[in-house]
Amino acid sequence: NAMLIRRIEQFLRETGMPWTKFGRLATRDPRFVQDLRNGRTPRSATEQRVEHFMNIYRESQRAA
Questions:
Q1: Which of 8, 6, 1 is nearest to 55 (CA)?
Q2: Which of 14, 8, 10, 13 shows the shortest CA–CA distance to 27?
Q3: Which of 11, 21, 53, 55 is geometrically suited to a Cys-Cys bond with 26, CB 3.0 to 4.6 A?
Q4: CA torsion sign, 51 to 13 to 20 to 58?
Q5: pTM of the model
Q6: Alpha-carbon span 13 to 49, nearest angstrom
Q7: DSSP string, the chain
Q8: CB-CB contact of 26 with 50 (8 Å)
């Protein structure tokens, strides 16, 4: 969980994306990042979906 939130925070810094938008796009939960910051532990499927979202988003930005 600590690793995931660090990767998300890095992603937010790189992209300038607001954390609420990230949560909405990655998990359909605008509070997702705030909940992680407060100690929430996501299910492994959710964690994989978030990683996939960040990878796809970065690839689309590079291609643009």
A1: 8
A2: 8
A3: 53
A4: negative
A5: 0.92
A6: 20
A7: -HHHHHHHHHHHHHH---HHHHHHHHHS-TTHHHHHHTT----HHHHHHHHHHHHHHHHHHHH-
A8: yes
Residue 15 in tokens:
């992209």
CA distances from 37 to 1, 4, 32, 56, 63 (A): 10, 10, 9, 23, 31
Q: How many residues does the chain have?
A: 64
Q: What does the block give as tokens for 57? A: 């988003």
